[in-house]
Amino acid sequence: MEWLDLLFVQHSALQAVVVISLIAALGIGLGKIRMFGVSLGVTFIFFIGILAGHWGLSIDPQMLDFAESFGLIVFVYALGLQVGPGFFSSFHAGGIRMLGIALGVVLLGTAMAIAFSVTTGIPITDMAGILCGATTNTPALGAAQQTLQQLGADSNAPALSCALTYPLGVVGVILAIIVLRKLFVRPSDFAAPSEHKNNTYIAGFQVTNPGIFGKSIRDIAHLANHRFVISRLWRDGNVSIPTSEKTLRENDRLLVITTEADVNALTVVFGEQEARDWNKENIDWNAIDSQLISQRIVVTRPEINGKKLSSLRLRNTYGINISRVYRSGVQLLATPDLTLQLGDRLTVVGEAAAIQNVEKILGNAVKSLKEPNLISVFTGLILGLALGAMPLAIPGISTPVRLGLAGGPIIVGILIGTFGPRFHMITYTTLSANLMLRALGLSIYLACLGLEAGPDFFATVMRPEGLLWLSLGFAITFIPVVLVGLFALRVIKLDFGSISGLLCGSMANPMALNYANDTIPGDNPAVSYATVYPVCMFLRVILIQIVLMFFL
């Protein structure tokens, strides 16, 4: 059985890969099991790693340190790329109120952790892990461990307390949502629509408002103060693609792309909305008229990346119209100031010959998008690690703060994901590629983290303070969610769907979001989760380091 020894016992690169892969495979498989409608998902790898470490399985310490660090770096960088496009947009007026409420959850939980550490005598190193487990935040745990290493403290301490409190952190948010719903929510609290729904809406109008007869589309758009794109105009039996200088006449029929919230206002502007539902998925757009066709073209030419739609002058040059832009599963209005990115899918309307010319300009070489752009990935990792290693002086702290392996890459990922296209930097990765990077990095990190914590885990649980850690962790999870949720419900008057989503986002808890999506009608939970998640994730990574610097 020498080959089994070689695979699982003798420390080597081969043995390390086998052990980590085995832990990850078992954890992912068991993580799909649901209990009372809840599953731990990929985080079950953490607990399989703990069991493996407890039973004596180990890998070379240097190999363990490398794999754990590399997994964390890849995970947080890919996470930053994913949340980057929505990070700064969450600061817009509609999201400020959501963010303010979510930050209340973050700050209240952090304050409770500090207070518990002072009053109970639990070392701040252990309390940092309790906080990370209670808020189900593995990037913050990685940041805490890196900070402790810089300070020469035991970096393994947070992993033990995090592992102990993590399961109740998952369940606690769900219980808090259930308590809010059962005790405080009225039927009317579900009625408010989402304030952040940005999906496009297609409507047909007939021009019957005398106030716009003879006015150009540009003038009407200025007077209406609403965002819309006129895809087609029917007049006297002929169809055309109107330019901004086109004047409208009585009884013109228009196919307009706008947002659902603006439909009623545009009905007043144009005069009459047609009854036909243009938003059905089975509409054959090419059969609507015989003169124009509709085709979806993908931006694949690097030269187009970062350019504004108006700078291409496609409508004036080729007589086509771009009605919608699909980006990461979201429909965007094709406004002149929209900055195009590699991978955008543009719905183009026009004559066949004109569309062929536009296709040459935009690229439409879908196969090229499937090829990984690894230069930007590795460049981002280098920049992220450089930023993480940079010492930052904070007043009142003698030791400079470093963002570390977790903070630096996530910040650079956010910045590159947001601003990269504006500097013509190709940052496009397919959604599946991004998910693969995140899942691979997180799986490796959790497997190593579990192996590292395993030998001492059960001895820690059996100590008298084990139950205290569980109780404090559950309090840090449950109390801020209930208090802030009740405040948002009764004082801010948000609908319960949006409240549930922002509570899940502030706690970085996708498992709780799945529960909210399954039990609350509408897409408000998912929208509000996406609004607050990037900022709260970033803030927790930074806060945990500041807390350790001040109180260690």
What does this structure look like?
The protein is an alpha+beta fold and 552 residues long. The protein has a domain of 169 residues: Alpha-Beta Plaits, CATH 3.30.70. The strands form 2 sheets. A 5-stranded antiparallel sheet has the order 3-2-4-1-5. Strands 6-9-7-8 form a 4-stranded antiparallel sheet. Strand 2 and strand 3 form a beta hairpin. The two termini are 48 Å apart. About 1% of the residues have low confidence.
Do you know the CATH architecture of the domain at 200-368? 2-Layer Sandwich
| CATH fold topology of the domain at 200-368 | Alpha-Beta Plaits
User: How many helical stretches?
Assistant: 21
Q: What does the main sheet amount to?
A: 5 strands, antiparallel
Strand order in the sheet with the most strands: 3-2-4-1-5
One letter per element, helices H and strands E, the order comes to HHHHHHHHEHEEEHEEHHEEEHHHHHHHHH
Q: Outline the low-pLDDT stretches.
A: 191-198
| Secondary structure: number of strands | 9
Radius of gyration from the CA trace? 27 Å
Strand content: 5-15%
CATH class of the domain at 200-368: Alpha Beta
Structural class: alpha+beta
Q: Considering DSSP H and I runs of 4 or more, what fraction of the residues is helical? A: 55-70%
The CATH superfamily of the domain at 200-368 bears the name Regulator of K+ conductance, C-terminal domain
State the shape: globular
Summarize the structure.
The chain has about 550 residues and is of the alpha+beta class.
Which SSEs are present, and which pair or pack?
Blueprint: H1 2-8, H2 13-31, H3 44-54, H4 61-87, H5 93-120, H6 124-134, H7 138-151, H8 157-183, E1 200-207, H9 217-224, E2 229-235, E3 238-240, E4 253-259, H10 263-270, E5 271-273, E6 293-298, H11 309-312, H12 314-318, E7 321-327, E8 330-333, E9 345-350, H13 352-362, H14 366-369, H15 374-389, H16 404-419, H17 431-461, H18 465-492, H19 496-506, H20 510-519, H21 524-551
Antiparallel strand pairs: 1-4, 1-5, 2-3, 2-4, 6-9, 7-8, 7-9
